[in-house]
Amino acid sequence: MAIVYDTYRREAPRRLPLLHAADPARVLARRHGTAVTAAQFLAQVHAVAAGLPTATAAVNLCEDRYAFLVAFCAIVLRGQVNLLPSSRAPQAIDEVMAAHPGCYAVGESALDPAPPGYRQLPSLDVTLPVALDTVWPLISADQVVAIGYTSGSTGTPSANVKTWGSFHASNGGNLAMLRAALGRRAEIVATVPPQHMYGMEMSVLLPLLGEYGVHTGRPFFPADVAAALAEVPSPRLLVTTPVHLRALVESGIALPRIAAIVSATAPLPLELARVAEQRFGGPVLEVFGSTETCVFASRRPAVDEDWLLYDGVILHPQPDGTAVEAPQLNGTTILADIVSLSDGGRRFRLCGRHADMLEIAGKRASLGDLSRRLLAIPGVKDGVVFQLDGGDALGVHRIAALVVAPGLDEHVILDALRQAIDPLFLPRPLRLVDALPRNETGKLPRAALLELLHRHD
After folding, report:
1. In which domain, by residue range, is 168 found?
2. 5, 143, 271, 419: most buried by Cβ count inside 10 Å?
3. pTM of the entire predicted model
4. What is the DSSP track for 22-85?
5. Are β-strands 81-84 and 57-60 bridged in parallel, bridged antiparallel, or unpaired?
6. Is 155 in the same domain as 300?
7. Which residues form the AMP-dependent synthetase/ligase domain (predicted)?
8. Are 243 and 108 found together in one domain?
């Protein structure tokens, strides 16, 4: 079924800049060792936009971050919507395209097989002439510019509409948080894809709408991260995930001095945050948000357990979750997270998610806490506790666990868990695996967990 782009309307819609242009010569991106100015970037955006077909929407499949930036802005200039599937798997792309009849797909590489109507971008290595009288584009605040799909970690991916006004508002909160920690300028190196909303906020919107430059690679291995950081001047901001951060710490690799590290997509263990700060020198900042809301709070976990809300954000705790009001939201959005407020409502502490809460024989626990206790066992490299589908005669769902723990066996892990949790909540089955099926941002789609467990059973 096609999605209707239902956005709020104002009597006189505001027009907001497509990119921050206080200085057309500012470095917006660093690509293949070359600095790209805002004016050079805009010239390539106009050239690509001129070659795009007429349509309502386009699936942005660009993996190169610079190509994604160019395609994203070109699609917006044409008045079209960037469709951001939860993964590049053919089925995920097909489902998104089926929901938007008449859309096409765009990317920087030749694909075989390619999605219907696929358009390959022209080479972006060509330096285009920059007009001295460049007109910096303004976009209606009400224009829908992107539809982001959730990862499916809690079920079926869902679509979330983003207007240019909402992106400006959410970026304002991130800018204020980062300026307090870094100052007005920084160079971003990101290990997360731009299609993910966290990657979108931290490696697309920041360079477009702030005075931040971005390294356009997407380093994966620790040596790649070190090389990318060495290619940008200080102050450096590393945007990453707990999975990547743990790999960096455990690799023992030396990194250029980092002004700050930002982490999201999964809970950041306190000990990992402390070790990373000691190893790499800068503060480790954790941001909190979702595809539905964008980021609306942050904390420095090595110092603060509570989260600090961005300006203009109000939380309303409810029995089964939390209602969120934020400048980037048109109305209230309900999240499954359960919180307790403090400091007059400006800070909050996470108490779990409604869907994660377990109750067996009158006793309560949360899947998040069980997973944290599993990860705290010496020798456990990765692991997750989750609930299986279907219940017994009393409606109780079994609990399962998948664990990466070379050198340990299942009985040793279960014995260690017995010392930390009530025996009622011991995961049965618990299976040792070589690796968890994490996606590009470190999340664990539920379907992939069930499939892996089924294979091991």
Report:
1. 15-304
2. 143
3. 0.82
4. S-TTSEEEEETTEEEEHHHHHHHHHHHHHTSPS-SEEEE---SHHHHHHHHHHHHHTT-EEEE-
5. parallel
6. yes
7. 136-305
8. yes
